[in-house]
Amino acid sequence: MNAPHPGILLVDDNPEQLAALEASLAPLGQRLVRALSGQEALKKILVEDFACILLAARMPGLDGRETALFIQALERTRHVPLLFLTEGEEVGAVDCVARPVEPHLLRARVRDLLESSRKMPTVRSPSRPGGEPVRDERHLEREWELLRCGRELEVSIANLCEREEHFRAVISALLEGIILHDDQGRVLLANQSAERLLGLSSLEMVGRAAQDPRWGSLHGDGRPCPAEELPALVALRTGRAVTGAELGVHQPNGRLVWLCVNAQPIFGPDGVTPTGVVVSLLDITERKQVEARLEASERQFRTLAEALPETVWMAEPPHGLIYVNGALPGLTGLAVDALLGMGFLSIIHPDHRARSLETWSRAMKEEAPLQVEHLVRGRDGSYRWHLVRGVPVRDDAGRVVKWVGLSADVHESRQAQQELQRRADFEQHLVGMVSHDLRNPLNAILLTTRSLLRRGGLDEGQTRGVERIQGSVERAIRMIRDLLDFTQARLGGGILLERQRVDMHEVVRGVLDEVEVAHPGREVRWVREGCGQGEWDADRIAQVMQNLVTNALKYSPEGTPVRVESRGVEEALVLSVHNEGQPIAPGQMERLFQPFQRATTEVDKAGRSVGLGLYIVKHLVDAHGGTLDVRSTCEEGTTFTVRVPRTGG
């Protein structure tokens, strides 16, 4: 029996589309064969010959493009014309038509394919002696499986090639150097970063063994690194990863590059035997250079510290001291190790230990400078005063990483200060006691002189003598009052006030009346405005004004007026005293309100003042919660301004 004449294979998963194709191609008088999938079409081409094949581009499973690849992979169907039926998409085929298509146009295209088929060499399907095609299903399945496996292998190889390209692209783009070694340590691959770090091209590195002495490797501490200690060979030998190893390598130009090296072994199918190793390289040259500079700076610091007689220390929270120079062991007789950490607490006097530790802890917590004084026990068991100061050291991010400081022996200076303080306290107590004891006899003399003057019966000479005695006693009483006020201000916690409701304008009037009697030849101009009511110590305010007005008269030329103002403002009263004398020198201005100071050295030659007036004025104004200002220039003269609030609250 003769084999059937080659027909037309119609491949589409849609039966309605197949029926439409059959109706369109029926006038051609050709044998039409249906296939509802790509797999079915492949089975049919293995047992039948076809003059041309029409393939739907879109089908589930094997689509038209994949089916065509298998068809063209077979020797005897390689030249069979194919016509793709598309929905408008690109399939990259030699011939295709977009659906829907007019039947007469489809027939014309198929006629051309049939004519082309007749010109192609024909490879027939295997047949039996009678011409009947062989239909060995096992043979067909094996051939189909071979085709499928071949196609999958082709796809797998393509995917592997694509992945290899991706891998090489990723490796090439890494900033880290990557080197792949085989199981003998020979270089198989190196990326561009490795070329840059090592100063060698891939061609120069590939095939070079890790043991090659040309690498010139160094350990992180600068010692030569033997081949057996190289991370790649250690990983190959032990089968364990090596991480964070520091290695120095000399480039061909002599430049030393420091690298952080990681080596990860690659295992064979047994999962035990390394077949290679991947090495990553990270440039840490700059970090090593910074560390070297820091180490040099540290050595310089320690050299300087050891040369100082004071104790130099460094501390890290919360561990305590991490360094002390030789001064403290020399002082205490203890070894350095015994003082490190919190061991230094043992040399602090027990009464001072808790306070010093509290100061230390607060400074650590607040990240603030440290200052404390305490007694430190020496090698002979005696205690001496030491002043400890420390400051925090911060890194680039502003974090405190340590404290550094000094501990200085201040025993002699502290004792000297205490002795000076004791002397000053004694002198002030003595002044207070003497002044107090002198006031009573002076008051008795003053009362006697006043009584003699009131009684009369004295001749002119006697009257002048009694008046001179009275004036001298009054000046002595004022000086004693100043000394008592000074003692109260310095030792008694401040001058006490007795506030009461008064009119400040009237207080000022009383002071000016007394001044005019004492200085009949001088002009004092007084300006008052606003309300003068408030709660003040009238005697103390009068003392302030008496001092300021008397000073203004004393330090201004004869014939020039002194101007006094008392002005009531909203919440306070302002008093000012102005004179036209020489300005106060800037150097004296700074000390003007200190005890035993005078505005100039040219006035008061009679020694009638001890230089406490302005000091006491300042304390009296402060006691009232007020302010005292002074302005002194050649053009404007000198003005003292007092501002006191109306109430003491």
TrEMBL record:
Gene Ontology, cellular component aspect: plasma membrane
Query: Which controlled-vocabulary keywords does the entry list?
Result: Kinase, Phosphoprotein, Transferase
Q: Tell me which residues make up the PAS domain.
A: 163-208, 297-367
Annotated ranges, domain Response regulatory: 7-114
- State the PROSITE patterns in the record: HIS_KIN, PAC, PAS, RESPONSE_REGULATORY
In Pfam terms, one family for this protein is HisKA
Write out the catalysed reaction: ATP + protein L-histidine = ADP + protein N-phospho-L-histidine
Where the record annotates domain PAC, the positions are 243-296, 370-422
A GO MF label: histidine phosphotransfer kinase activity
Tell me the enzyme class.
transferase
Q: Where is the Histidine kinase domain?
A: 433-648
Fetch the InterPro entries from UniProt: CheY-like_superfamily, HATPase_C_sf, HATPase_dom, His_kinase_dom, HisK_dim/P_dom, HisK_dim/P_sf, PAC, PAS
Superkingdom as given in the UniProt entry = Bacteria
EC number(s) for this protein?
2.7.13.3
Q: Give the matching NCBIfam families.
A: sensory_box
Instruction: Tell me the protein's name.
Output: histidine kinase
